[in-house]
Amino acid sequence: MISLAITNVYGPSDHSLTDQFLTDLTGVASSISAPWLLIGDFNLTRSPSDKNNANFNFSLASRFNQTIDALQLFELPLLDRLFTWTNKRASPTLARLDRAFICTGFGELYPSTTLTSGHRPTSDHTPIIATIQSKIPKPSAFRLERSWLLDPSYLPAALLAWHSVPSGDNEAAVLVAQIKVARQASKVWLRKHRSPPHLYHNCYFIIRLLDYLEEFRPLIPGERCLRDLCSQRLELYLCQRAAYWKQRAKFRALKEGDANTKFFHARASGRRRKNQIATITVDGVQLITHQDKSDAMTAYYTSILGITNATSWNFDLSTLYNSEDLQILDDLILPFTEAEALLAVKSMNVNSAPGPDGFGPACCFDQWLPGELDYLQERHPAVDGPCPVLQYADDTLLLVRAEIVDIRRLKVTLDSFAMATGLKINYSKSTLVPMHVPQDRLERIVWLLQCQQASFPQVYLGLPLSNVKLNLAAFAPLISKVDRRLSGW
Hints:
four-stranded mixed β-sheet, flat, Deoxyribonuclease I, Chain A, two-stranded antiparallel sheet
């Protein structure tokens, strides 16, 4: 029988009583040993994003966050709205005052618990609804688990199927066939080697039982062999669990190991709760069930992926590069070597999510990659010359003069790139940040680029970016984000 503790909270609106309220909350926590859900109106905010204006009390938020951290609680993310309270004025003040927190034990029992909002007909507060559940929908698509690679029987079975495909003239077709047979062999292997649900407890019981018997009499060879087999199987099981949750936690600061598995489990569950989509609206109809949402998203992405767009190369490289740079471009016709491809794959994160074919970078390490790169016919990239372009991952920062002729040239260049490569540029997701630009010219530039307009300070790569010295308040969102990452630990 599972017992839960649920505490309903109504915090004081008089903040002179906040310290006493937080002290009482700590006292309540000390008397609870069961999995705990703490929910209600706290009348406190945790970060500047919890309000729609700049009137934020850092001192109260800091004391509230310190109490939550001391109690080792995790906040359930509210999936369908930003604020839960309004003062109902013409220019309303909106705030997030209603929250729900869970302890680590609660998250382990019910990892898919979610928080949504109800209807607010008359009150100034929006009711919040915590749905306690442990069922997690399993995807039908194949995904290779890095924990499988720890079993010594997996790779021989998968490699046997991989090498069973005969070679041919079409390297891409051979690769696709190899992936298909390896994927099917992996499914067959998994059905035969799936760990029993009570493996851990059974092995642990047998080891303890035989250790107890050994205190009174010597173990016979069969008993010693059984204990050794249980120890080996238990060690493999723990290593596989550690790899399983490490891959899902997306956290690189801690190493994989049994001592950290519980942390990775909790972090993976928190990511799942935060990333869950409560509803999807399609043609004015709200979809709530998992199957309806899955069908809608599958139909949408099927309609846009795999569609070839016509391309046209309407510019000359000689007009973009000087003669010396054109000599460097000769490297474009050279194929990648196997050593270069191997080095690139080995530099990848082994815990990265698998690709559309179900296989991630972990399966390539020292096993499948050597000798299997005939299908790589890509070319080396060109060496860029000096230009006012800063790039990091998929973020690109362009610096350009606020002259209409320069803006037109930039727009033509970007459109030509899209036509030549088939990669469309989404200007609605691009941002223009002006610096000392007259208003009439700025309006014309925004109209030419058809993008959003922003101002300093703004967030770039997770850090505040500004053209002037920043004060402490500008770093408040970053500090709040770090606090949330550390919450519960």
